[in-house]
Structure of 3-methylmercaptopropionyl-CoA ligase:
Amino acid sequence: MRQHFEALRKVPANHVPLSPLSFLRRAEALHGPRTAVIYGDIRRSWSETARRIRAVASGLAGLGVEKGDTVSVLSPNIPELFELHFALPLCGGVLNTLNTRLEPDTIAYILDHADTKLVIVDRELAPLLSKAFALLGRTLPVVEIVDPNAVDEAPLGGPTYDDLTAANPMPIALPDDEWDAIALNYTSGTSGRPKGVVYHHRGAYLMALGTGTAWQVPPYPVYLSVVPMFHCNGWGHPWLMAMLGATVVFTRAPAAHLILEAIRTHGVTHFGAAPIVLQMLAEAESDAAPFDPAIRVLTAGAPPPPSVLEKTRSMGFDVMQVYGLTETYGHISQCLWQEDWNTLTPAEQAELQAQQGIAFPMVEEVTVIDRNRGAPVPRDGTSQGEIAIRGNTVMAGYYKDAEATAKAFEDGWFWSGDGAVQHENGYVQIRDRLKDVIISGGENISSVEVEAVLYRHDAVQAAAVVAMPHEKWGEVPCAFIELRDGAAATGDEIITFCRTHLAGFKAPKAVLFETLPKTSTGKIQKFQLRDRARAMHS
């Protein structure tokens, strides 16, 4: 009997590489006449969008982009960046979306580390790219996006994105191997320099399927593009929306008034956003009638304050918190609503909604493990361990960093670095961050990176940066500084110094001068400083 089963093999008829490019093929064939994109005065159908994507892929190939080549993109959420999520994998390239809030030094580092072959840049961001090139010590070939809705800075001299759309469209073909890289995303991690996280076609495909199932998204949603596509490729939502034949609405800037206007004007049904965006919307919308039907919202980046969840529910937002990391393609657990929560007060419901929840359908397992014992923690809501993840939407590994990859995958798990408890119902809840990463408004800030800048100040003898709770941003950097003998500095001076070397959101929002607590070996005891920062806030 066994030999008969073993004789059956994978053949083209029964085994096809998984890739989100399948969703584009489906969208063009099935959803062709339906509206795919709304941006200002632009309206494009799925037929038009798919043809543009296939033309851009051909144009990129004409510029020499080949299989495995990294193409970095510096752009806000606009249709061109959405299209590149399909055009680059179609021509074999690897999409590297750059955080538009980063400082030139980090962008220069990523361009170098990623072995970037070509940069596609929104012309409004061209000055930022020019500064990065200056620090890099060389320029790279550039394609410029000319958006009439943006400030038109001086061109860098390359072809335009519109030039690519004039190429002869290539047919949609799947990769030979679903393990081929589709995207390279950089995360702050715990070191001063970001790590490159490699996504493959298989993971991107399964991420889209799993999200659609977990979020219970019906066909033809109207999706507002708020989650930056430089964050885990917008949590994989661009690929999901093609599968569902969605209408994707763009506002370019995630300003509260633009988001609310888009929701009302276009009948938005779904969007994702960091808690800071939800707070902005709650503050901007005070007296308006709640949305009916409710808008389905995913939130992630940091545990949302229960007060924000309570307020947004009254606004007509059906918010579900999700949890994930760059290394897991974005969200891999959800705080799925339980029927027995219906009888609780809004405040009690919001407290429960702030949990990180249970695994998405495409994730094999999300659990909390006591690494000292090598076993899951009791489901008592108090015993703390580290969140460990296993599944097909875990990264292929860190780019050019085998040692960090091996460490992240020890004992057959991906170790998140997040300390958490597990409740009786299996729901996970973060209690403390094991990594020294501060999540501010959905942006990851490496404390080591900020400390490195502080140490460059002539008056600083020692420095430590920890997270301080903040009503608006969730967390902000708080700097504790030990001055050199005879030196003097003010908090404002330190903050101004940091802002000249870092993106504004990374600069400390509070500075305290004192002798730093240290162990006998001279290591700064950050846990004491975290307690101080929390006490200061309260």
Remarks:
- The two ends are 69 Å apart (CA to CA).
- DSSP finds 18 helices and 26 strands in the chain.
